Amino acid sequence: MLTLKDILVATEGYVDRGEASHALDGLTTFFTCVATDSRASLAGGLFVALPGEHVDGHSFVLDAVGHGARGALVSPTWQPPEALSSDVVLVRVDNPLAALQKLAAWWRDKHRHVQVIGITGSVGKTSTKEVTAAVLSSRFKTLKNAGNLNNEIGLPLTLLQLTDSHQKAVLEMGGGYALGELTLLCELAKPEISVVTNVKPVHLERMGTIENIALNKSEIIRALPSDGTAVLNGDDPLVLAMRDTTSARVITYGLEEGCDLHATNIEGQGLAGVHFTLHERTGGGSWRVRLPLLGRHSVHTALAAAGASHAAGMDWDEIVHALQRLDAQVRLIVVPGYNGSTLIDDSYNASPDSTIAALNLLDDMKGNRIAVLGDMLELGSYEQEGHLKVARRASVVAHRLVVVGTLGRLIGEEALRIGMAPERVFFAADNEQVIEYLMRVLKTGDYVLVKGSRGLQMEQIVDGLRA
């Protein structure tokens, strides 16, 4: 737990005597947690009032106190409402976000015994974070980001959850909006092991070129200390090239035999997971792995997690054992659907590569296969090519194709152009129309994949079709 003295030292903030006369005499006052959401349970916690483009966190200080906050980080000019109790400690700082980051960096430095594993990539970083954390947790007390707390706000909040009992921290690090983002996150978290899953045209609209995306992701490798370890996808040339940007040890993984870790004999088992043989080049060992994750693309996730876990001190037998006992929560889940169907919910987000990977999983299903696909956003100059590429795969895999959204329409039109029968393609105006259509055609044994960018809120389709 943080004390008021800790916060003042780390943030270079100050407390007005007039607002909390007891505060300076009570520097050992403890704060149980730090949060930026005033709706969270904040019993004894510190609320950070972040100014935003549309909403100013200072407007919610009273709400945070109502949820138990003991104090708040606020700007120097903010005037508290009369209803705010004088017992609430107001720490004034020049910039609440910068202060949050300073506090997190200071707290991380107090917990340098914790080895941090940083994970980034265009696609698959959340799954890799979840699997890596699950494997490491089989032996070590491990912290991980909750949900997608992976940016300049979420990562500091995660770091502030470190305790003396933690041994490892697996931190997903976002990025993709501007160069320098990951450099900042690495300055806060100081990873000793860094994983890059891939470089794809995700956020291309913002980053401009695929080379800029690669440069952005490489920041997590360039930030490594010389005694650190880079775990790189050897099947992705843009990722593999990052080995030249660091003096740290490099472990490569992939399907190519030249990788330090590689997989062969991959067998998709549908909803039962995927089986493969794991080979470790240095020691020459091989293990048959029964991986309880969905889709052949999960093999790359498992290899990345294995490489990071080995670099963190686990031996291969315990890594393989942990992989086979995974109960990691990843974004692709399976739920019972309407009229005896099965829903494959991958609605969290979408890119061309992740959508094709999901279609490959659908292809493993023994039954009538329906793909519900929507817009894939922020692809920039790759927008049309990416949607047409998905259309070509969907037309082969799916018995029915349902598309929604302006860009989703491109998928349906291309599927028709290359020969998919018109009665097998349905163009929906919105999510509600998707639900109405599927309720008419779904039957027992059907498998339905739902996939699209977050902006389309396609989780509404899954919710509407649950059994």
Question: How do the helices and strands line up, and which of them pair or pack?
Answer:
Elements: E1 2-3, H1 4-11, E2 14-15, E3 30-31, E4 34-35, E5 46-48, H2 61-66, E6 71-74, E7 89-92, H3 96-109, E8 115-120, H4 125-137, E9 142-144, H5 154-159, E10 168-172, H6 181-189, E11 193-196, H7 204-207, H8 210-222, E12 229-233, H9 237-240, E13 249-254, E14 261-268, E15 274-280, E16 285-291, H10 298-311, H11 316-324, E17 333-336, E18 342-346, H12 352-363, E19 369-374, H13 383-397, E20 400-404, H14 406-417, E21 425-428, H15 431-441, E22 447-451, H16 459-465
Parallel strand pairs: 4-5, 5-6, 6-7, 8-10, 8-11, 9-10, 11-12, 12-13, 13-14, 18-22, 19-20, 19-22, 20-21
Antiparallel strand pairs: 1-3, 2-7, 14-15, 15-16, 17-18
Helix pairs in contact: 1-3, 4-10, 6-8, 10-11, 12-13, 13-14, 15-16
Structural summary, described in words:
The protein has 467 residues and is an alpha/beta fold. The chain contains 16 helices and 22 strands. The strands form 4 sheets. It has a 9-stranded mixed β-sheet with strand order 9-10-8-11-12-13-14-15-16, with helices on both faces. Strands 17-18-22-19-20-21 form a 6-stranded mixed β-sheet, sandwiched between helices.
Short description:
The chain has 467 residues and is of the alpha/beta class. The chain has 16 helices and 22 strands.
- Beta fraction: 15-25%
Rough outline: globular
For the sheet with most strands, the description reads: 9 strands, mixed
Helix count from the secondary structure assignment: 16
Unreliable stretches covering 5 or more consecutive residues: none
Q: Give the beta-strand count.
A: 22
The separation of the N and C termini measures 44 Å
Mind telling me the C-alpha Rg?
Answer: 24 Å
Query: What do the pLDDT scores average to?
Result: 93
Strand order of the largest sheet: 9-10-8-11-12-13-14-15-16
Helix content range of the residues, please? 25-40%
Structural class: alpha/beta
